[in-house]
Amino acid sequence: MSHLDDDIPSTPGKFKMDKSPYFLHRTRWQSSLAKLAFWSLVFFGLLFIFFYRSPISNPDSSRRSLRTYSWGGPHWEKRVRSSARVRTRNGVSVLVTGAAGFVGTHVSAALKRRGDGVLGLDNFNDYYDTSLKRSRQALLERSGVFIVEGDINDLSLLKKLFEVVPFTHVMHLAAQAGVRYAMENPSSYVHSNIAGFVNLLEVCKSANPQPAIVWASSSSVYGLNTKVPFSEKDRTDQPASLYAATKKAGEEIAHTYNHIYGLSLTGLRFFTVYGPWGRPDMAYFFFTRDILKGKAISIFEGANHGTVARDFTYIDDIVKGCLGALDTAEKSTGSGGKKRGAAQLRVFNLGNTSPVPVTELVSILERLLKVKAKRNMMKLPRNGDVPFTHANISWAEREFGYKPSTDLQTGLKKFSHPLTEEEEEITSSFVRSAAIDCYTKMLGSTKTGDSKAWKILIMDRVTVKWVEELFKRREPMPGMDAIYLSNLPKRTLSCFYPTCLAGNPCTGRHLSFSVPLSPKNWSTTSKVILAFYPRIGALREMNMEYFPIDNQGFLTDHEQALETLYADDAENSRHFNICLNMMATRIATVFASLKELPFVRYRAAKSTASRDLVPSKLAAAIWDCISKYKAIPNFPQTETCELLMWIDQVDQIAPIIHEWTYDAMCHDLLDMEGNNIHLSFATHIADASERLHEKMTNFASKNKAAQMRSRDGSELSTRDLQKIVQALPQYGEQVDKLSTHVELAGKINRIIRDTGLRDLGQLEQDLVFGDAGAKDVINFLRTNQDTNPENKLRLLMIYATVYPEKFEGDKGVKLMQLARLSPVDMKVISNMQLIAGSPENKAKSGSFSLKFDAGKTKQANRKDRSGEEETWQLFRFYPMIEELLEKLVKGDLSKSDYLCMNQSSHKEESEPRTGSVRKSSAPTAVPERKATPHSMRSRRTATWARPQSSDDGYSSDSVLKSASTDFKKLGQRIFVFIIGGATRSELRVCHKLTSSLRREVVLGSTSFDDPPQYITKLKLLSEKDIQGAPAQPFKPQYW
């Protein structure tokens, strides 16, 4: 204490300073300079420890622990509840942590498809490129899964989620992945895999009800175990990496919470999961990348040149295992109070049971990519990797029927070749062919005499099939050409310009824009061209702004069109005109790519309200765009086809009634995404089941392997074995295809049976055709109180359309109360009026009044079709588009209800062969052009050769198969565009009418909606954030 003597005086009775020589050598610390040097050393030492010993993987990682997330509020809680809402009677509500991860994305989508309520949670960390996680997030949001952005270590967030939603299950997939990365950033593994898991369990133990928990462990827990295959009973106390140690710690923690708090816990040990949307740090990802780049790939080998092998498991098999474990998980029993028995605690292996050497993985990639790999064999480093994994899945197979079905070659084929044979067949249709023809010409034009076969295609956004993104920094590739494909010229050039300045990352650049260049964009483009002329290979405008989704269907990708154009005060929003103009431009590019000049017909307005004027405004904008195409060489100067436009007010029943075809049921009941159902659109679900049975029977009778499988235990000859081997490839392929459809049809029939959907469907169709009335609806609601609320809402929406007077005053409120529907559901029916038109003489009524047509007295919305029999039950309904198109072809379409934006440039002509009649007045003269004979046929664009029996691009079960239609002999095409969203029943009718009317009918829309999506859009028409709050930017789904 001697060095404090001068600063702190001695206090009597306390102590007295000793001036002995012992303290004299420490007087140097009294120097202020020495003090400054000492504390500076301490300060810099702390900085060294903080920056060099803290978990930093990149320059932004130092801020990771300081990151905050915004959550909470009424709108946030509404999105959480909506995402977690159960849609089926036996569904469950699941919280999926790590939902934006590889496995989490696939599991969340699978749960949502089968009708479970799903809410995601993810912190979107930067372990790998976050743009991939954001793309997964966008994919899930389109299927109705909301991902809350937050950390599982945020206790207040977890508590809030369980307050808002009483989850019945938790699928805990959030974790810090990667074995080797644990050596660089060990604390992140403890933070996520241990602390995060404990945090989640703490919230679950206090939740009411306590959820059953399924969590992801890893095959890494087996560590250096040499006993194969790995069994759940084997020792797991020798982890070879910190990642494995944290996973093992998670299993021990789970045992503790199960024993003390009675939580039901199921652990899943994943074995090397791979597949689409996978992690970029996985071997098959960077092997593929390096093989294509011509780089050498490092392949590890074990001791004494031993083989390193992995039990590669395809993602679809992992998803089946996750769902099986969740479905068999028992309820948590809790702790304290009455004894209810021990809670369930299980751990399962989920693998493929077929280890494959890494060298064989590379060989498979070589065959698929048709490129020879440069191999560099290396010894297996001591970084946590183990030489061998092999799963014993007998317990999982016994408990919930887990059985993997995808071998490595099949899985990698799906990864490297995203287009299946059926998808390639679908692209042979004429709408798709026009798009493909444009892309093919664009890509083919980049070939030069000295150019290489491989080129870099750079898109606007990362999708499933395109792994490059325009707005990323990328590695220089001097030996390859780059093709830029974009519909945002200004942003494209802003990224293109600095890459040119930075050097020469690519040999040549080819710019292709799917949108026309505006004068402002052209000024920027010209500067780039002049500055970097030697490096630019081509500059093109493609006029490709539509999205073909079927051989007779396309989208303009305006998911929000209904809310943007028909919400209250929508016309006062600046996005109203933006949406209309963008929609018109994209529709016009359809005709530009097909070289068609249409008669633009639209539904006439019944009033001066802005909603009623939407079709006329859109028609004017479309004609303004198309009329400019006449200056293009070889573009027709006279009308070659019909374009008919209307909005959902024409047919408000088609979007909500249950459609009983196989395709529609898959999307309605199973929440299936996409449009690839390989049976006809017109196939009734009962007919589809019969056809599947016939196909299975026929296949079993012809395929040798199938025959041998069904034989008794008699001995086989060498000849029999040879036939079996020859038939095995076809056997596996056909069984996979047929078993998928058999499984889908089985699920549909089970849902129909469990939910009593057959009786509801019959009542819906009886209402539409006037065979049922108020008593039938009331009796159904009284006797079927447990019916799905959404189905009851759809029934009342049909009832309101057919019997609008039954919803006047407080009648509608009483019906809603009888159906036990919420006030939010009541808004859906009242919002139908927003798109139903505005009658000029409309009497005011009570607080809840719905009257779609003041003069309507008929009690049937449809008439039975003459000359058509109902082959299958519940196949009576047809959408209004069928009547309108028949009237159009016969010339009976009301000219007062459907006006024509442009007039014909030729005299009235007719073609008895096709039944087409044209009536026009005030023909438009074309100056300085020699008159040419006008053809009543549409211009035909090139299409790929294909069998006539597969005209719809789906299969031999085509709806047009029996007609053997030759498209070249058909009359003018008819294009139908529905504003606000089209349905699958309307697309089915377009296929049907193509055969019966002998006119190609093409359906376009802003989006294709299944009933749940359409109902959600109706709800949003009265949301405050649409009609009250400031307008939000219009965000298309794709750019």
From TrEMBL:
Region described as Disordered: 904-957
Segments forming a coiled coil: none
Pfam family, one: Epimerase
Subcellular location: Golgi apparatus, Golgi stack membrane
Keywords carried by this UniProt record: Carbohydrate metabolism, Golgi apparatus, Isomerase, Membrane, NAD, Transmembrane, Transmembrane helix
GO cellular component, one term: Golgi cisterna membrane
Catalytic reaction(s) noted: UDP-alpha-D-glucuronate = UDP-alpha-D-galacturonate
GO molecular function (one): UDP-glucuronate 4-epimerase activity
Membrane topology recorded in Swiss-Prot or TrEMBL: Multi-pass membrane protein
Quaternary state and interactors: Homodimer.
Name recorded for this polypeptide: UDP-glucuronate 4-epimerase
Originating organism: Arabidopsis arenosa
